[in-house]
What we know:
By secondary structure, the protein is α+β, with helices and mostly antiparallel strands. It has one domain (10-264): 4-Layer Sandwich (Deoxyribonuclease I, Chain A), CATH 3.60.10. It has 4 helices and 12 strands; from the N terminus they run E-H-E-H-E-E-E-E-E-H-E-H-E-E-E-E. It has helices at residues 22-32, 52-56, 128-149, 183-196; strands spanning 10-14, 36-40, 61-65, 73-77, 82-85, 97-102, 108-114, 153-159, 199-200, 230-234, 248-250, 262-264. The strands form 2 sheets. Strands 3-4-2-1-12-11 form a 6-stranded mixed sheet, with no helix packed on it. Strands 5-6-7-8-10-9 form a 6-stranded mixed sheet, with no helix packed on it. Strand 6 and strand 7 form a beta hairpin. The longest helix has 22 residues, at 128-149. The N and C termini lie close together (8 Å).
Amino acid sequence: MPSQGMGFSIATWNINSVRLRIGLVERLLKEWQPDVLCLQETKCPQGQFPSAPLKEIGYGHIAEFGQKGYHGVAIVSKRPFTAQTSHDFCSKGDSRHVSVTFEGARPIELHNFYIPAGGDEPDPKINEKFAHKLQFLDELEAWSTQKAKAKGHRILVGDLNIAPLVHDVWSHKDLLKVVSHTPIETDAMKRIMAAGTWHDVMRRHVRKTRNSIRGGAIAPRTGTPLIAAAVLTISGPMRHWRSEAVACRFIAMPGAGSSLPTMCR
């Protein structure tokens, strides 16, 4: 987080139904006390996010973008924020992106993403879901290019559904034709990283990962690609971020499902 001002901690988690696992969300917030928690796959219609128990424990600022049954993203924060926005990637009306701005000497834009999984067959000609994913990644690259031209700091977190590096998966060779680790996806992620000048924050602290963990983090400029799911990234010149003070980790959470919460401080 910025080299000037107070520290800032962020957790990110594919919750896979926030209403089903709201008790786990409360437990995470009580035990780890992040300033901000970003959730993906909330699967909660807009306006029905279970905010009351979270506000009772000090998380009174919530930005949600949800829809019934699928997708959904939310930002839960102790700190007040402004300028909540959502971008409609691929013009499908899906709830896959929400952002807020934290004001201060160096305002920070926080972007929370849920990238399409892509289905089972890595061929856009026969798999509409994979074609959608590739289009989303192309638009994310263009979006990152525009964001990189703007002043200020940006953090990107989310479930990216891509495992780009060899040691992200149990067998690089065996998974080259498996969705989330195909060359067309990993090359797209490299382009996104370069376009947005993102730095991979998580990889500075957690060198070995596995796709089953489905967690990670990135941030703009000279970083390496994100890992499978949960990401945390920062943008802008690294000298403006106290990267040496950042600590990142996966959090063991019984009942969390296939994704573990990831936290950077």
